[in-house]
């Protein structure tokens, strides 16, 4: 079993050996909360276990797969606050994916801290680089570890029954015993690890995948090269590249060392592995990469944007933290906000004014932004400054911006681009040679670089210090006086901010004018003032009219952030998405309220066959509780595209529920539509519980048999939970039988 071999390799590493032996570390939450906990890495090489010495049998665990990074030294606000008490060489921080808080730890020695830092980093790298087979092996090994309650390296039938409940499976005892007996080759009444692998394979045998396999397999045992090519061409719509792709997929996913791999052919195991891979997922892999034209004016892009970025919680009493900026920037956010106020000792501060939210120093935020701005994306960051400071402290802000950001800060107009439009995200700088021009009219040698370290910002106040106002280059904040006024008077570098209610009203009353306005200028939309709980509005309404900076509360998980993450998942997650042609063409009069009047109107029909689900997570952790899952498909886009359909619920089966239900939609404006797949635990007496979701742009969907890898409410992966679907997109005929080609 690979799990055991992995353990042996891990134990050979000195850093991993320290982790497996265990260490007593201080868990730090604040200057006054510092408590010792015993931490150790479990035998699976992925789970970190910890408990206090007074907790009895109680303990906590987390997986290394939940950890995004390890920071050494005083690289968190908490550890900075105790810097005088504990040296940096003893301190480190575990940073988790999503919105989960950091874990700040202090070791007794630099050597022990270094072992944990290096060890966790190696484990993160190992988890990130596992192939599909290794992930499956690890998953099987994890279940064996969970089921083997007495840790004797074997699993009796009682432990098997407990395991089935843990795996969200409702199975009658007779059938469970039948599978157990078939796997118990040694007839010992218990399963060792190799026998458990066989039990797991029988348990996870997927009839729905087998049926698809059988439709194309001549002998029912394997897919010959030409048979796999036919499947790719007919079902997966791979077209002329099907032959080449078939060879690639066999080489990549066929697990057998002999036979099929050299025929070449693909077994059922290899076929299922392909379907569960990234290439078999619903998201077109090539569109996950940076592939859009980044040379258009900024106004031609949707820009991932955060509102009141400094807050981790609500708008009235919430905690302000530089960690909020780190989290937003790591998600690809390209516009962050700072509410700036006068602080003590001449130091500008940031907080939600006239509330009980905590305060942080302006200079600390700028330092943090400089460090993290370009880790997830190379493209420009916009600093949105809501300025409430005195002229004196504005001057201090300007000094910090120049000192900390240095050459990364844009302080003058860029040369080499059209001065009648905003610059593009990808700007090339012409650097003239230091040699003098010897002849009039000739150009010196020129070198081109991608302009990536640029930070723009704007201000919503009239009394400005000269030093700060001189830093405003392209984003001058102005009051909106109407679309007619903007057409005749507005400058391309002027931008206006709109409350969600005003933006929504303008979109409904004058959608085509709003689209035109947003071709030339930037507009920013922010949540209404009554959203003190940091809830969000639906950003789709604003994207429908081309608003670029649609600011959301990134700290609040839910539908709205799912849509935001879904839109910006494409194009390398760089935080910029090119708007559709009709939102960039000055001759277009696109109105989201009347998409059928658009010259390029080409509606499509979407059919989603929801076939099955795989290993859905438990919502209620009470012993014996099993989910009753249903799937809902939601479409977001122009008003005519807003729709939702759902399957019936399946009772007591979160492990391998089968629906085989087809849901149909008409998409009037495919270029703007987002599709959200939601899985819920049905409850007839109260609101359904959320299980998982995945959201993506309609134009990024792959047709054919696909897996949808589900995300948690927090937006993090929950492998191996997935849905198996068949996606069909075709031309749409209206009632007059008018033909619209796909």
Automatic annotation (TrEMBL):
Ca(2+) 3 binds at residues 308, 337, 339, 386. Glycans are attached at residue 186. It holds the Pfam family PI-PLC-X. Residues 17-125 form the PH domain. Residues 135-170, 171-206 form the EF-hand domain. Substrate binds at residues 497, 524. Residues 584-712 form the C2 domain. It catalyses: a 1,2-diacyl-sn-glycero-3-phospho-(1D-myo-inositol-4,5-bisphosphate) + H2O = 1D-myo-inositol 1,4,5-trisphosphate + a 1,2-diacyl-sn-glycerol + H(+); a 1,2-diacyl-sn-glycero-3-phospho-(1D-myo-inositol) + H2O = 1D-myo-inositol 1-phosphate + a 1,2-diacyl-sn-glycerol + H(+). GO terms for cellular component: endoplasmic reticulum; nucleus; plasma membrane. Its EC number is 3.1.4.11. It comes from Salarias fasciatus (Jewelled blenny). Ca(2+) 5 binds at residues 681-683. SUPFAM superfamilies: C2 domain (Calcium/lipid-binding domain, CaLB), EF-hand, PH domain-like, PLC-like phosphodiesterases. GO terms for molecular function: calcium ion binding; phosphatidylinositol-4,5-bisphosphate phospholipase C activity. This is Phosphoinositide phospholipase C. PROSITE patterns: C2, EF_HAND_1, EF_HAND_2, PH_DOMAIN, PIPLC_X_DOMAIN, PIPLC_Y_DOMAIN. It is a peripheral membrane protein. It comes from the Eukaryota. Binds 3 Ca(2+) ions per subunit. Two of the Ca(2+) ions are bound to the C2 domain.
